[in-house]
Amino acid sequence: MNKPSNQVSWDTQQSNELYGVDNWANDFFSISENGHLHVHLHDEDQKTAVSLPDIVDGIRERGLDTPLLLRFHDLLADRIRNLNIAFNSAITQSGYQGCYRGVYPIKVNQQQQVIEEITQFGELYHYGLEAGSKPELLAALAYMHDPDAYIICNGYKDQEFIDLALQSTKMGLQIILVIEMPSELNLILERSVALGVRPMLGVRAKLSTCNNSHWSHSSGENSVFGLTTNQILNTVDTLRDHGMLNTLRLLHYHQGSQVPDIQSIRESATEASRIYTDLIHEGATMGLLDIGGGLGIDYDGSRSDSHSSRNYGIQEYAADIVEVVKTVCDEAQFNHPTIISESGRAVAAYYSVLIFNILDVNSPSADSIPNRIPEKPHPHTMKLSEVEGYLEEANLQECYNDAIYYREEILSLFRHGNVSLRERAYCNSLFTRIMTRIHEIADTMEQAPEALAEGNPFRDVYYGNFSLFQSLPDSWAINQLFPVMPIHRLNEEPTARATLADITCDCDGRIDQFIIKGEHQDHLPLHPLNDHENYFLGVFLVGAYQETLGDLHNLLGDTNVVSVGVKNGKVQYRRELAGDTIADVLSYVEYDTKNLVERFRSLAERSVEEGKITPSQRRQIMDSYRESIAGYTYYESPNT
Ligand SMILES: *Cc1c(COP(=O)(O)O)cnc(C)c1O
């Protein structure tokens, strides 16, 4: 590829700093010498770096196009291992006498493949599952048969749910029914008598400790879930009255997801440990303390207590929990409980990467070459064009003010019908050119005028072939920041200042918050598009919560999904799931595709009758309609 000769030299280390790869990638991704982003996978006992652009090329050659969701099961396996090692080494180092048993909350990513892989990778650690609804329990029972792992049942439970759990307990599974509402207890007691099964029970506590995560409303005394201390004691009394206090085995709490601050994690664990020991004082058997989820991910790489980060690591998390529980139990002179945690985000986030191609770029600078000058320009138009003549460093602020003033005046004249559309367009281009020049000068000044300190406001809009609402719902719903960057050309300087727009026609369908050189920025440095060459971006850490929260905005459906590994130095495409077809998404909203074809056919036939098209044109039109219905919901690139 020919590079412009004036290109300043740029190396991959600069890309690394710009996009913060080392900060968020957890050693799973890195940039190679040739400017490709690599993912680190396992090849038997070795770690191998594999090029993401090569993976994408291989998939496209096989016939699946972008947008693509890549899943890396090795990263899931690594995270499960990391979590277990963190707790096990904290336990060994502190002389804790209980053990650790993690469970994976199915709601975080319920895809069949994920549950299958988690139960497989977790076997070594007796890693269990958490089910929050009847469908999740059914999935858990199909995949989790390890008698040493736990299945934790949270959420609302009806009789069917309870019966299923009790009957499976009879078959040797360790299923814990966590009481979240006082009313559940009587039904559980009734059903366990009827079925002749002694249940394993837990209670979910509302803690008073709050945290400042996005999900803080799911913790604290006002949370919708869990029992108040009074309700917990009523539960204990009822169990005692029934001679069932020895079935109470577990205390559960959940602080909310993505807890940014380790201090509030310690506080919650302390409060919960006190409740735990007092339940033993009350006569409950106990033995299990379930600390819920909340272990955060460093999306922005800042290792701070901002919403998109956390000020602790997985080791520190495990060590602090173990230490707090140990201290409280030692004081009360009780055995150390088995610690259960329900980390979902921290386990699943790294697993998936969204890859999409850029369809087009809308660049204001392309609009800065004015059309021909209007015949009788308005005096304000003349004034605006004069600004260019006297523009220099010494009067930058003045030129800035003048340009803005005349541009506003001309807009107002246009609204009143006093200048033409052509003249307005001419002035707009002139204005863009002047402003670009002003910012170029300001960028070279040691102290730029205050109004210009924010930098060039013009952004290139890069249109990505994806739907934010389908693939990155949290980016839209709660302004979650995800790492976004090109997966190739990382040895070239990215000279464009871009924001990203998706292909929904919704003005919310955009990403305009990024982490650049460790700071929040409203633009992402990207490369200018090359002719006849795809430009691919990746969005990272999307394995948790994004895949099944997505909606069908503009009827854009599921993307293609491919699961990737390596063996003997070769990339393996282990599983492919073709994304939704247009027929699929239309059927989700109750259209019958046969009926659609039939309706369109009647229009085509009428057009033949009326002589507007020929019968063979009708055939062509109908073929295109049918082909589209069977196709991908995203923009399909022409086969090249
Ligand atoms: C959502 C949820 C989790 C998972 O939380 P993460 O922050 O993703 O680890 C765990 N437990 C319960 C009860 C939940 O509702």
UniProtKB/TrEMBL annotation:
Top-level taxonomic group: Bacteria
Cofactor: pyridoxal 5'-phosphate; Mg(2+)
Organism listed in the record: Oceaniferula marina
CDD domains: PLPDE_III_ADC
Gene3D superfamilies, per the entry: 1.10.287.3440, 1.20.58.930, Alanine racemase, Lyase, Ornithine Decarboxylase, Chain A, domain 1
Gene Ontology molecular-function annotations: arginine decarboxylase activity; metal ion binding
GO BP: any one term: spermidine biosynthetic process
Limits of the Arginine decarboxylase helical bundle domain: 383-453
Family: Belongs to the Orn/Lys/Arg decarboxylase class-II family. SpeA subfamily.
Enzyme class: lyase
Protein name: Arginine decarboxylase
EC number: 4.1.1.19
Encoding gene per record: speA
Keywords: Decarboxylase, Lyase, Magnesium, Metal-binding, Polyamine biosynthesis, Pyridoxal phosphate, Spermidine biosynthesis
Domain (Orn/DAP/Arg decarboxylase 2 N-terminal) ranges: 101-349
Residue ranges of domain Arginine decarboxylase C-terminal helical in the record: 582-635
Xref: SUPFAM superfamilies: Alanine racemase C-terminal domain-like, PLP-binding barrel
Annotated Pfam families: Arg_decarb_HB (PF17810), Arg_decarbox_C (PF17944), Orn_Arg_deC_N (PF02784)
Role description: Catalyzes the biosynthesis of agmatine from arginine.
Lineage, broadest ranks: Bacteria, Pseudomonadati, Verrucomicrobiota, Verrucomicrobiia, Verrucomicrobiales
Active site: C505
N6-(pyridoxal phosphate)lysine: modified positions: K107
